[in-house]
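User: quick one, fold this
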Amino acid sequence: MPYPRAATVADFEHNLAAVRGRIAAACRTVGRDPSAVRLLPVSKTVDEARIRMAYAAGCRFLGENKVQEAYAKSEAMADLADLRWSVIGHLQTNKAKVVARFASEFQALDSLRVAEALDRHLQTLGRGLDVMVQVNSSGEASKYGLAPQEVDAFVRQLPAFGALRVRGLMTLAALSDDVARVRGCFALMRELQRRLQEEAPDGIEMRELSMGMSGDYALAIEEGATVVRVGQAIFGARATPDSEYWPPAP
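Assistant:
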């Protein structure tokens, strides 16, 4: 059944409470503290008026896939001084300057060219940026991200980029009704994070594990997610298909 469209502040308050309730229940299942999981509402395709309702309901950190859409929203809502933006979609180097200008977080780092471009623009602006390394945990050609076996070598090169604060890993699990397959993606990420916490260079943190969306975030939490990216369960079903926002990887 599609998620109903949130159209009032009360709708958003209700949906946020429901999602937080599911987060707490998932944490209880595995003996985790719900405060260890950050909810990142994803506002892609959502217009300014409804985002302002979400803000009134308590949202202060929003995730967006497309850089130009996110930047336009950040400019339009610059009056909301404590509203921050996380870019969670694939980034081309020619858009790095825009991300450096406004984002508080970038969750889809998967190339040194992008790392270099972000670092250069951030240094010019005197800013730092929290980043996560995107991993293709499902092995699907349609998804961006590093192969799991490439992550160690990639992470070892990141201390060269002083404006990037590496906080952890991000993934999209397989889009599948097979719970075991989806859980396998999340379990792989948990083990990768654990190993990197022991082996990462000085200055590189691996505390964050961003995984799980509206359809699978409870499962992700059971496997160790510290950030869940939830859009439709908060804002309602999107008319735009996910393929528009998660384009096939080349």
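User: anything notable?
Assistant: The chain has a mean pLDDT of 95.
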